[in-house]
Amino acid sequence: MVSIKLKLKTKANAESEHSIVLQVLKDRQKKIIATGLLVKKERWDDKEHCFKTRHPNAMQNNRLLDTIKIKARNIISEFEIDDVDFTLNEFENRFRFGSKRSKIDLFEFWDSVVKDLVLSGRTGYARNNRDTIRSLRKFHKKSVLHMREINVTFLDKYEVFLRSRGGSNGGIAVRMRSLRTIFNLAIRRDLIKQNLYTFHKYKISKLRGKRIKHALTMAEIESFKNVDCEGDVQLLNAKNYFLFSFYARGMNFADMMRLRWSDITQTRITYARAKTQGNFSLKIVPPVREILNYYNENRRDTNYVFPILLHDSLTPMQIENRKHKILSQYNKALKILARKAGITKNVTSYVARHSFAMCLREKGISIDVIGETLGHQSVLTTKAYVREFGVEVLDEAVEVLL
Known about the structure:
402 residues; mainly alpha; DNA polymerase, domain 1; hpI Integrase, Chain A; two-stranded antiparallel ribbon; 15 helices; 7 strands; 50% helix; disordered C terminus; DNA-binding; Integrase_catalytic; DNA recombination
């Protein structure tokens, strides 16, 4: 059941005028859409939801309100005729943009999508989208970008712009995939026609390149373990985070950050991975126990294991901002630790996960088992984690047959 009503916003402006808004209710959810009209409370009929007759422009304004209500009812009827169980966001998009599909402003639509991502707690994804919007605005240099303007030529020039600013194939592909996702969403919501989709011709796959995946050997892990942090708390935390990730099946930083003492028993750690929502249960091995003991002895007034999130009641955006800040500090500290350990590879937080996979592979563990420990849904993903072996390793594998 869907209901619509015109009402006043509670808060008035400096002139004691209230905004008139359209309230749409569906499945106990509410959406408020501004009409752009203002009125003082004494000139508004709360019972009839219209301007009182003593208002100087009552007749003209009430006709406008009737038009708004008719438009809203027509949109609801269109959804019902098409048998579409629409969301309130889809209603708002149809109400605001109407049938002028080719004139949809990409920036306006994309900003509304980002707001929904933040509300749903997907702050990391929202940040990535914001970064792409910011980049696209710098390239376009105009406040409005109609979706019909984005064709192969536009994308080619945007790619050149990104390269001129030091963009790599991987970074450019991230921007283009974000843009492609927004086009797909606009088509699915019936805001633009399918023929405006230009990614049939502009192929993002051409940007795919083989990234060098750095991984540490067991010998390098031992060197890393033996680094003296010389009382530097930031270096000690970075060392602990890296080794914990390595020995906890390549647990990534986002999951370590959110790990709570309530996720830990005497022998196991159980948690849901933020990226995939897959459930993990892993045995606490001695190096992990040693790190947990250290943070238990230096426990803070939160339920979080690591000193990354400093309060239990942070908002999703505060958590995302904290993650961004500490991850940057963590990666800088890893560079110092690697140098102290005599490691020339580029060590980042993600290297712990790759190193875990590679060290298992070097110990003879099968790709399938490694994929299970990492939580991969496809063996192809796991293969991307492990580099090709040298000829000596292959020779030894053949000698097993003799």
